[in-house]
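Predict fold of Glutathione S-transferase family protein; 197 aa.
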Amino acid sequence: MYTVIGKANSRATRVLWVLEELGLDYDHVPAAPQSEGVVSFNPAGKVPVLIEDGTPITDSTAIIQYLADKHGDLTFPAGTLDRARQDSLTQFLLDEFDAALWMAARHSFVLPEELRQSAIKQSLIWEFTNSQKTLAQRMGDGPFLMGARMTVPDVILTHCGHWARIAKFPVQEERLTAYLDRMFARPALRKVMERMG
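Predicted 3D structure, encoded as tokens:
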């Protein structure tokens, strides 16, 4: 049994969605970042945290890749060329999409008000838009990023797509828009999104 700590409207979405896709049992503790229930497991106070056998695992990407590896789904095997391509996509999405959205969030509501630089959002939107063009060229021919098989990068990109809509970062590539519409329709993700409130 797994326990996921973190509100569903955070990067915990990724972990909850993977658990649902894998059909695994879990408990969900919707704790806020920096709350006592989070800091006791992650000194940085960030969510999500996955607890297994009393051991906390932090960072959403590490957690979902661990779950995919352990349960043999949503991933290609380590040491294969497909896994190298998968990991390359994961890193690209974290660097180009997640990082831009997180930086915008930091300068919107995370940092102390006197440290926020609101003008930075325009440059981040520019980077986010350019990255979409690169991604469109890297997308496979199937319904998922790597073709016929859903993998960890699909979870990261779809979560970033949802985050982008909330943050008013435009998704301009038609191929990406169609992809996100398909992914948002997945029953496992819809179940998690119902908890976001």
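The first helix runs from residue 12 to 22.
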